[in-house]
Design a protein that fits this description.
alpha/beta, Rossmann fold, 6-stranded mixed beta sheet, 5-stranded parallel beta sheet, binds pyridoxal-5'-phosphate
């Protein structure tokens, strides 16, 4: 499979180059050149086929012959090596729990898949060391750091907004030993992201280090997220239409769901659920794309006002707003509604949701109510374990929640990080780091 740039000013390139480069030379996001269409035979055998084989069939045409079948199956097996349960918490309302991976965030899947692809593709003869450079608004950092544990000769450098991520998230980023450098940035996520973008475009840095991105723009992080939607559909064994509500920030996860639908998976509708950083819900409603300044919220992994993956969604729908509206609804919720929802889910459903997940639930319920829908499966995507947002969750439900064992051990480790204010500091660091 070749990948084109959505700025349409770079030549199509291989999956390998798309993974290593992250962004195309013209700064566009990569997008598969050809449309993929899964066979009816495969789609009809969803309930019978084994999970890893299903995921292999879903992704294989996006990679072509660039990774041998056995290796790709190995990569997939390592990527979905934890449980992904679907829990019915109310009649026909399901929680798709994607947070049972190593860092308790759904981003574990994309991060692990990408790390293993890069490990396969890296050039062992190059004089330039490969460095993964990534900005995180919370969960990406830990997932990426963990994804690369065990891949040799690849450095990881993670930028996060100081004071704007949770304690657990910070520990997951800053306690991984010497090959993962955490950088605390005095600013918001958008500043982190723009520093990373500048580095990728900086000739003097690229002369010395082989930089690669691990943000959700990377095709190797984006594509395997299709697995969630196939696995969920496989697990809910009835013939009612599926409606997915996805808590969205950079819109990578929901975009993978939309891609899953475009290659053949039966999905009735998507709900893009956001916090008050509501650029896309406003766009869907009013037809005007107008990002505002990013605001901090308790669902901080979604504090994004210019979602980088939205351009891919527009591409899938040929920039047709009517088609977008037919397939996606958007709703936004403030912190108070989010906390009320966490409380209600705990009281009435005996279910503890993190703030992002609560927003997914709220969006789903609002969509079902506005459209008076029944006889369908409403699935809200649970993107983080509640412990990652311990304080907010405890304040909402008015009681304590327990650390899982995997977290307790890192909470005692010492944080190690650099602090930066501006791009020039990052540049200096990258140029002289080896
Ligand atoms: C990253 C993240 C999101 C948003 O996912 P996108 O793919 O960026 O839309 C939602 N919830 C949590 C917990 C996250 O970490």
């Amino acid at each position: 499979m070749k990948y084109i740039s959505l700025n349409y000013d770079s030549a199509p390139t291989s999956f390998r180059n798309a993974v290593i480069n992250g962004l195309a030379p013209d700064k566009g996001l990569y997008f598969p050149e050809k449309e993929i269409c899964l066979s009816n035979k495969l789609l009809e055998s969803l309930y019978e086929i084994e999970e890893i084989e299903l995921c292999y069939e879903v992704i294989k045409d996006f990679i072509g012959d660039e990774i041998p079948k056995n290796r790709l199956i190995d990569i997939i097996a390592n990527t979905i090596s934890f449980e992904i349960p679907v829990k019915e918490i109310e009649n026909s309302i399901y929680s798709l729990e994607l947070f049972h991976g190593p860092t308790l965030a759904f981003k574990d899947v994309g991060a692990k898949f990408m790390a293993l692809c890069l490990d396969y593709f890296k050039d062992n003869n190059s004089s330039k060391k490969m460095t993964v450079l990534v900005a995180t608004s919370g969960d990406t950092g830990g997932a990426v750091a963990n994804g690369f544990l065990g891949t040799k000769d690849i450095d990881v450098c993670i930028l996060y907004p100081k004071g704007k991520i949770s304690e657990v998230q910070e520990k997951q980023i800053t306690t991984n030993g010497s090959f993962v450098q955490a950088i605390e940035v005095e600013g918001d996520f958008d500043l982190c992201q723009s520093m990373v973008k500048n580095a990728f475009n900086d000739y003097n840095i690229n002369k010395k280090v082989s930089l690669t991105s691990a943000n959700s723009i990377n095709v190797a992080r984006w594509l395997p997220q299709m697995f969630y939607y196939f696995l969920a559909s496989k697990r809910i064994e009835n013939n009612y239409p599926n409606i997915f509500s996805v808590p969205s920030g950079n819109f990578g996860n929901i975009c993978a769901g939309i891609l899953a639908k475009s290659i053949g998976l039966s999905i009735e509708h998507f709900v893009a659920s956001t916090n008050i950083n509501d650029t896309i819900p406003r766009y869907i409603k009013e037809g005007i794309y107008e990002p505002l300044k990013t605001k901090s919220t308790i669902s901080n992994a979604m504090d994004v006002s210019e979602p980088s993956n939205f351009i891919r969604i527009q591409k899938i729908f040929n920039n047709d707003l009517q088609k977008i509206r037919k397939n996606i609804s958007g709703y936004s919720f403030d912190d108070k509604s989010t906390m009320d929802c966490i409380r209600k889910l705990n009281q009435e459903n005996n279910y503890i949701a993190d703030p992002h997940t609560a927003i997914g639930y709220l969006g789903l319920k609002k969509y079902l109510k506005e459209n008076n829908l029944s006889n369908c499966n409403g699935i809200f995507v649970s993107t983080a374990h509640p412990i990652k947002f311990k304080d907010t969750v405890e304040n909402s439900i008015n009681s304590q929640i327990e650390y899982p064992d995997s977290i307790r051990s890192i909470m005692n480790k010492e944080k190690s990080t650099l602090t930066m204010k501006s791009y020039s500091e990052l540049k200096e660091y990258l140029i002289q780091k080896d």
